[in-house]
Amino acid sequence: MSNPGPQAWEHALHVLQYAYDNRHEGILYRSDGNTHPISYYDASFGPDPTDGKCTYGYSTHLFGGPVSWLSKKLPHVGTHVGQNETAAQCFGGKQTVWIKYLIEEIQQNEMLPIPLLGDNDQATRLSQEDMMTSGNKYYYTPYYWTKEVNNVLIQTGRVDTKENVSDILTKAADKATCDKLHPRMTGHTGCEGTLFTFDPLAAKYCP
């Protein structure tokens, strides 16, 4: 922002338009939402042509709404989607563990591992099994951290791509995907999309 140009101005207007169009929505937390945290992560494989790096994202949800989320470019170039997903899993896992520690400090009570769900089978298996293949043997070593904490602090698992809340944090998704996942990301239907929609303006549920 030290030297903004016409493109930065266009992006700023786009953000303001989005904020205006969604001014009645916001983030919703609800008593019928999940009482145990759950995290989702995802990574794209649409490299930035200027540096070859892709976007990843993660979100952690509690009582239906997000308590932590991020959308950012990966620090390393991935040569295939499994490598990017493994990196995203690691970053999402670290934030999930921080959430776990924070809640435990507040409650003064140890809690069960927090589910960390992604839609890439290769990344999920790599966090659960001691397997070395021609496709993963060159991964950046710190990304294997999830193997150490799996089933201790986090619990990695799979979620279908169409149900992965963090999918909209990694790419320009189509309208149908946004319409489905946006209410989940903001807590209006819960992160699993199974809760009745709540209208904050009318203060009532909309079955």
Q: What features would you highlight for this structure?
A:
Nucleotidyltransferase, domain 5; globular; 7 strands; single chain; 32% helix
General shape: globular
Described by strand count, sense and barrel closure, the largest sheet is: 5 strands, mixed
The CATH superfamily is Ribonuclease H-like superfamily/Ribonuclease H
N-end to C-end Cα span: 44 Å
Q: What is the CATH class?
A: Alpha Beta
The number of helical runs is 5
What do these coordinates show?
By secondary structure, this protein is an alpha/beta fold. It has helices spanning 6-21, 81-107, 121-128, 145-149, 175-185, and strands spanning 38-43, 55-62, 65-73, 114-118, 154-158, 197-199, 204-206. The strands form two sheets. Strands 3-2-1-4-5 form a five-stranded mixed β-sheet. Strand 2 (55-62) and strand 3 (65-73) form a beta hairpin. The longest helix is centred in the middle third of the chain and has 27 residues, at 81-107. The protein is globular. The protein starts with 5 loop residues before the first helix and ends with a strand.
